[in-house]
Amino acid sequence: MARITMREAISQALWEEMERDPKVFILGEEVGVWGGTYAVTKGFYDHFGPERVKDTPIAENAILGAAIGAALTGLRPVAELMTINFAFSAMDYVVNQAPKLRYMFGGQFTVPLVIRAVGGGGRQLGATHSQTPDAVFAHFPGLKVVSPGTPEDAKGLLKSAIRSDDPVLFLEHATMYQVRGEVPEGEYLIPIGKSKVQRPGRDVTIVTYAKGLELSLKAADELAKAGIEVEIVDLRTLRPLDMEPVLESFKKTNRAVIVEEGWKSYGVGAEVSTRIYEEAFDYADAPILRVAQKEVPLPYNRTLEQAALPQVPDIVAAVKEVLK
Amino acid sequence: MDKQKLLQMYYEMVLIRRVEERGAELYQAGKIGGFMHLYIGQEAVSTGLIAAREPRDRVITAYRDHGVAINCGISANEVMAELLGKVTGTSKGKGGSMHMASVEKNMWGGHAIVGGHLPIAAGLALGDQYAGNDNVTICMFGDGATNIGYFHEALNVSVAWNLRVLWVCENNQYGMGTAVKRASAVDEIRQKAEGYGMKNARVDGMDVLAVYQAAKDAIDYVRRESKPFLLEAVTYRFRGHSMGDPERYRSQEEVKKWQDNDPIGIFRAALLKQGDVTAAELDELERRAEEETQKAVEFAEASPEPGMEELFADVYAEN
């Protein structure tokens, strides 16, 4: 096992897949000469050349439209959106084209596309650059939505996404690139659409993913000091959603807290909690609680921004609440 | 051009006309649902254009796609079956009038978001560039699509990346009911290419031979130079924008004037004038087109509906 950062894990996945398959190429804003605005593709341009690490104009429709067209010809593009917020400029391709072409043309078309995008708040970038709109994208059948919370998962899931014949939106969190974790040596894949217990426990189930995992693990350490053992289920993939480990855990603990960074209304927590109620209502000993972002556009001011984002104490409090 | 090819083009134009006339009847009878946009009046554009391509050249178009589908070699049977929502249709009855395609015939749809397929066309050409071949992607769209942002982004990268795309604007004078003059900064759409430093031309879209020649020249240029080209074909749709169009935006005199300029009539006269084609030969082609259309209707009517297993099929390639 090697201990590497999330950035290194994502970079390794891209590098290995490009070495393995000449049909894989990267396109996006500043992915080449610049080396990636988050330095994920540093060194790629010199090694793979301008055709396989393609700099684009700042034109999201051109990036995603071209990526879809190239995918239709049998290539495996990895299109990078500098941030998920820019997906809104090209929403048509993310939710209306890539996920529908196969179905709408009776299975004739295959769109082996990965869209990598950075999201999340906490960097004082103001309201339009700080969103965590994951649930919006997870709404659409035909798209797969992946959002890892550990370097190991990031690497294994991104490699699976690149090999997938379906369009995959791969969401990375802007404040997690320095997160370190153990990664297996050598080649490995992690399947899309499988949730995972990241920390076992008996008292309360926390369902979360991505940044929420980082926060929940910290909350779990704190709660353990008070003798409360939480079990953390990491969704890893939002669509298709794997509820099995969630339900299994809930049937054991009978209590759950859902932690997500996006807004609570119509969010991941709304979906997951409803599914628990639908499929395991009789096991519930307390109402399921959600920890999520306050219902405001994220402000620039650091204190206000942090107040709007979910924090470790919010999770600790919610867990204690469901145990009352 | 050899006689056989000319007759084939004539046959296709008549076949498109007949298929759509029957389609309109079936629509009125409630057998076709959704939106249906007829190509009647514009047949010379796609017929001339597609006749000029090589089979390896990709074609992608907007939602007014029945004619293009037939020109690309998709059978009248499959077109009619798709209109009727049958499993034997081009898209198994799941796409409808606006979403006809055939990977086998190198026809990549049938796209119904105005302008949305232009960046995808750039991507098809990018795929060919990456593969190192000199295939041309022919991307057709209406005048209305040149006013939306996709048009700009797609044309811009096609020049910046030296993509082999032939952009073909079918200027039928109206984006739905809004005249070009009321919606576009310039009346001549080809002028928009100038801002990208892109070569361009304007052709009479009612004259199939003129379209063929212009397309041939443009395709040769795109293939040879590895640069995009914008071809504007000036045409007119004889029917409404779609089946539910009250047509308040244009006069009957205007429609009549264009109908007198019917592309099939023009081509027929040109062929007869040329000397080695007889009226009897053309009449026979018209009879055959009528027959093929009738058979297509029978085929579509007799075809099964997609089964419930199709409801969940092809959402994903893999599970």
Descriptive report:
Chain A has 324 residues and is an alpha/beta fold. Chain A folds into two domains: 2-183, Rossmann fold (3-Layer(aba) Sandwich); 196-323, Rossmann fold (3-Layer(aba) Sandwich). Chain A has twelve helices and 14 strands. Chain A has helices at 6-20, 44-48, 60-72, 91-97, 101-104, 134-138, 151-163, 211-225, 244-253, 268-280, 302-308, 312-323; strands at residues 2-5, 24-28, 53-55, 76-81, 114-119, 144-146, 168-173, 180-183, 196-199, 204-208, 230-234, 237-239, 256-263, 289-293. In chain A, the strands form three sheets. A seven-stranded mixed β-sheet of chain A has the order 3-2-4-5-7-6-12, with helices on both faces. In chain A, helix 8 packs across helix 12 (312-323). The radius of gyration of chain A is 19 Å and the shape is globular. With 319 residues, chain B is an alpha/beta fold. Chain B has one domain (3-291): Thiamin diphosphate (ThDP)-binding fold, Pyr/PP domains (Rossmann fold), CATH 3.40.50.970. Helix content of chain B is 47%, strand content 12%. Chain B is built from 13 helices and eight strands. Chain B has helices at residues 3-28, 43-51, 66-71, 76-83, 117-131, 149-160, 180-183, 191-194, 208-225, 252-259, 263-274, 279-302, 309-312, and strands spanning 58-61, 107-110, 137-142, 165-171, 174-175, 178-179, 199-204, 229-234. In chain B, strand 7 (199-204), helix 9 and strand 8 form a beta-alpha-beta unit. In chain B, helix 1 (3-28) packs across helix 2 and helix 1 (3-28) crosses helix 12. The longest helix of chain B is centred in the first third of the chain and has 26 residues, at 3-28. The termini of chain B are far apart. Chain A binds chain B through residues 25, 51, 56-57, 59, 61-62, 64-75, 92-93, 96-97, 101-110, 112, 141-142, 144, 164-166, 240, and chain B through 89-95, 99, 101-103, 108-110, 113, 116, 118-128, 130-131, 149-150, 153-154, 156-157, 160, 313-319.
